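Appendix B: complex inputs.
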Amino acid sequence: MVVIELKNVSKKFRLYHEKTRSLKERILGRSRNVYEELWALKDINLEIKKGETVGIIGVNGSGKTTLLKLIAKILYPTEGEIITKGKIATLIELGAGFHPDLTGRENVYLNGAILRMTKREIDEKFDDIVKFAEIEKFIDIPLRNYSSGMKMRLGFSIAIHVNPDILLVDEVLAVGDAAFKQKCYEKIREFQKQEKTILYVSHNLESVKNLCNWTIWLDKGIIKEKGSPDRVIDAYLSSLKKNS
Amino acid sequence: MGIISKIRELFEFRELIKNFVIRDLKIMYKNSYLGFFWSLLNPLARTFVFYLVFEKILHIGIENFVVYLFCGFLVWMFFSRSVNFATTSIVKNAPLIQKVYFPREILPLTCVLSQLLHFVLALFVLFLWLLISKIKPTIYILLLPLIILLQFIFTLGVSFIFATANVFVRDIEHLMELILLVWFYATPVFYSVDKIPEKIRNIYLLNPTASLVTFYRDIFLYGKLPNPYFLTTSFLISIFTLITGWLYFHIQSRKFPEEV
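Resulting structure:
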């Protein structure tokens, strides 16, 4: 069953040289017309089936994050159509919506809701989330008193406890020390066993090789190559060598 | 996307709506000694100030002036604060909008919902005052939910419009102060509708905030049925405002992540 389908999808951004957001500039300046057009993605066709883990690789600015944001409905395509089936969770940034004035506990519920968890789900997983983040002692103090490491661990811990049908992961799982990464890969394996569909953007090619069923190589907004991770990664690496 | 499927989607995201409202309330009163009491103190204090100025100094001579004023401030504070917070709701939540999907309607909607909670709290103060003033409730008090709904629909519609406009023209948030000042004087908070020249009174009352104030006074203070004609026009205008506002918001919302 196809759960993510992209048909001739293109995305154009307008890059304004100077942001003109005020009335005065709009009326007097006409500077609004100073922008460049950038095709972040061009004519992408893609079908992803349920239970697949798909890696997305490519250099910075090749359109990887834009692709995830389009699938997540954060952005909308300029052309083409995107069809998705099931609940999507997007992990583009850890701790999205964390508020410094709220306690750790309150932030778990807020961030959990943002990641589309229900209250019951959070209730059930609350102890696990706190334990995983290793912040039991601090859960009832405001987030502003957390160290950046604690915040990161909490955001991370909530993120891996979400229970979507489709999981879009953008590099965030690369944070943390080696032990943390290990926990994270185990979690992804668990998701795979549960037949979840995962899109995995990463610069860590080794992890792509280990985790993904197949891989897409994006280059300047087009799919340069897709297929088995080994083959695509080899092609990608040799192109990097050629260019350097 | 149609209205029905949008409502269904909002229902799916009810957990998030609830969390945003709780967040707003918690943050608003965090680190303040009186906390939630401010929701009650604020309209009371305003009523007191206006009472002093207009009753004791200017001798405006309106019966039960405290209840009279309070009805006006109830509507006005709900409306102006909702619209004020909603106007910046999209821009202020830019990082969230760029990182996660959720129906963007939730942001202005939570602003209005949080204010609704303050409004309900303040209603209790009004009830208390009615009791003290020995004003007996009549059957028409049953119209209260309907009038609150009317007020909610209109306020949400206006909130959608300003929230969207401010994404594209940031001057709106600075203009808000002026717009709301004019709007305040166009609402009969401290004066009687009778003061409006008869010729334009019918047009004046087409402004839902103006007619809402009179509705609250009718059911609480005078214990009579609000003018059915203005009830109907207010409802039609409010629903029209909500649909227009939402459509504008909905069509533009796709551009939000790139514009904020």
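The mean pLDDT of chain B is 91.
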